[in-house]
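request received
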Amino acid sequence: MIFHSLKITEGMFERVIDLTEKSNLIYSKKNSTGKTTLIRFFLYSLAYPVPSTKNIRFEKCITEVNLTCSMGKITVLRNDEYLEVSLENGCKENFVLPTDQNLFHAKIYGTQNNDLLNNILGVFYVDQEKGWTLLNRGIIIGKIRFNIEQLVRGLSDRSCDDLTKDLRSVKQQLNKYKQMFNISQYQQELNEAENNIVFDTKDEEEQKLLEILNSEITSLEAELKRVNTVIAENNSFKNFIERMKIAVKGSNGESIPVNRDTIIGFDFSVEFLLAKRKMISSKISSLKSKAEKYERSLEGQLQLFKTETLIESFDRNISKIEVDQLSVSNMISSLEKEKNRLNKQITFLTKYNNDVVTSIHKTVMKYAKELDFEQFITPSSDYIFTDDLKSLSGTILHKIVFAFKLAYIIEVQKKINMTLPIILDSPSGREITKENVKAMIDILNRDFSDNQIIIASIFQYDIDEVNVIEIKDRLINELRQQ
Amino acid sequence: MSRNATPSSFGWDFQINAAIVLMLENIKTIKSVRVEGKKEDIELFLESKKNIYAQAKSVMRIDDYRNVRSNLKAGLETLNDDAACDDYHKLIYVTNSPNPFNVENSMSAFYGHSRLSYNDLPQSCKEIIDKEIENKPLIHIDKSELEIHVIPFFTDDFQQRYRVIKDSVDKFLFELNNNTRGMADELLEIWQHEFFQNCTQGDLDLVIKKKDLMWSIIVLQSQLHPEHTFLGDYDDGAVEEIIRSYRYLINNRCEKFEFISQVLFDFQEFRSDEKGNKKVAEFIATKCDDYKDVFELNEIRDEVQDIVVKIILQKIITNRFLANDIVKKVNL
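response:
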């Protein structure tokens, strides 16, 4: 991919930057003139969400970049969220950001591989601040991240989509449980505070009692219904007997009709049930009046709540949430384990027997020898996934980063069959000696002669066929003067 | 029932509970009770057509004697009015103050729950009454029918406040039947509710019949408590669980006349050397299988069927025993 020109328009002003296919040096004698802003404009014009610099608000500017990419020679016009691509044949394609960002990148880089697309910027661009310490994981610029595992998966077509989805969900859950844990700790604090009685919610107690009362009432009402049924059944039995008009003989030979009055024990049954019915009804009515009292009290408390402060009602609500601190913390530790397991599996799938890994390591080793930091790189190809950067001095890290980037570029180019530009913002960090910079430039001249190189610096380098873009005063001032 | 400790509701509460105590003391002779009646705070109507009138006066604090004397005097005046009709059997002044005459050295006479006739009163107290009767004058009071009762009844803790009342109920139940143990709390609550209803009813002719009050005992006893069964051979938990599951069936069978009649007839015919609960237990053990047809389905385990049938038989028979005891002992 090669940038040919970049036109930046801001209101009445504009500036066109022309580039050569080879090396380009954005140069100014002193700092803070807009070199970094210009570099970021290149990324911005390619639809990357890069943060504005102090000098200029990107979204207020219109960029028009001319470049050769896998779509051919195209012009990309960006106006805030709107992207218009003009093809050589005069056709135009429109994209809306950020939704279409990946779609657009898939077209210009010529690959659908999301693992690759997500990490490609980190391959060819080195930011002036963090860029030279970003080796294999971290933030490239703004919110754009770089992750070597993902890149390697992209390069070797080893998708872990399912696993990463699982991992994401585990992480989300973990997050929630951690919040829950915080809540339980907050509750503990509330309980430990002396005024916990205030939140020992009276209404909750009353609510519970009310529920108990209501369920008692329901069961008593069912009992009442049952008793009424038995009363009716006993009555119909009595009627049945009476209808039969039976009489029995008494001990003196007298005739005794069988009816309610003469059936032994019938009155007892009737009165027993009537007494029972009365007792149940009276119990129901007394429970109901108790329940009403609670209901009224609960209503009253509702009114009261309106006058409490936000923090009081928050505390009260929090104290109502039932969080079992122990089971939450068990859940957290089991999710942590699951997270580690998934991570390990993903790592294994990424690294195991992977040619890309070997190849990146080989390239890094090659440049390590040349730039004289070989002793810091372990011979195992796993080294490219290292997270031990603390032991490295600034100078060494700078060189290692440089070597890694070149190794990435080589691999990505193999994959997408297209050269990538190399964009370096201020490669001469504070601790970098001139010799080191020269060695790096030499490598670029020698091994990356097909790549377009864009460097921003206050130094002049000995670069082959360099096109110097000088920013005399601030970039923004020059825009306005045109 | 509102039992906030305001002087008036406290007074109501005392009046109701005093009525319960007086009722139990006269249970054999009374027919019905009225609280807050036409004439008096508590009116007990006797079978003999004569009445017991009781004037109830309470103080909220046990050591507050400021108004006891004026309470007594007002009480005597009302009792004098009651006595005018000459339909009375007894006149009672009932209070919760341990010092109803405000005479320090008379207090030992009223210690605890006391019932003193005029003749048994300390001399100093007699003199106070005499003077009052003479001064007013209270011509209708027959001092030989006058009694002074003190029922300890204090504090906002109901357990403590009703202690003496509950003891009265307990004693009454103990004398009634040995299957009614442990029912005092529940029974007292039911009666208090009944008496409270009565005293708040505007129709002064409405009385509480002794019969109705006694029925509450039978109904209470008929409730299914596992500890009230004769099922000592079975696991308490299992019995409880079975009662829970078969409550509907058990209650229905215990209340259906045809079935009750069948069981009682069989029991009557059942010959045994035992008596009382022992005979019941023997009958149940022997006849249990005859009643297994209460289950329409045969799928229920034998042991469960056993327990359910035994509970039903026991309840039917003990209910009738209790009813007979009540009829005899409270003269229903």
